[in-house]
Amino acid sequence: VHASLCQEFDDMSDLEFRPNPRLFSRIGSFSFTAFTGGYAFDKKSNSLVLGGRVGYYLFELIEVEGSVGWTHVQRPAEIVESLFGLTLEEEDFHMVYYAMNMNLKLLPGRQIVPFVTGGAGSSIMEGATEASYNFGAGCDTFVKKTVAVRFEFRNYSFESGSSESRRDNTNFEFSVGSTFLF
Predict the structure, then answer these.
(1) How far apart are CA 135 and CA 41, in angstroms?
(2) What is the pTM of this model?
(3) What is the pLDDT of residue 164?
(4) Taking the CB of residue 95, how many other CB atoms lie within 10 A of it?
(5) Cβ distance 56 to 31 under 8 Å?
């Protein structure tokens, strides 16, 4: 820096050092997200998903959140192999799922904040509750200091079925929502 562009001060008490005044601290903030999107049950049935998430920023990088979602699964008849032969099964049911997740914010304090997420919970369908886990990624785009648009992709995995014919389910959720910080 050239000396003509610099100025020397005797008293430094009035100066405040802010490395980037556009960064916002979200530590201690609560977040509420309402979302909708698509849900692919076992990669075969696509349906609408509705839900909500409530979170809390523990640190700049870490947000913990609880989520709940609903979808209606409809799959055409397919052949299912069981212990005693083949059967033709059709699926048509409502599913509710909930989870506790941890989000790792990759660029905290900025206007566009990408994150990775993971957690565990349960899926309730056809009168049965199945333990599940999920992982994914997303991005919060803040349009104001306390309002964001949230895009997210998650992979939900769990086992379902009766004891003779348990099978792994890999489900995908893509959602878009609005997030409000308090």
Answers:
(1) 16
(2) 0.79
(3) 72
(4) 20
(5) yes
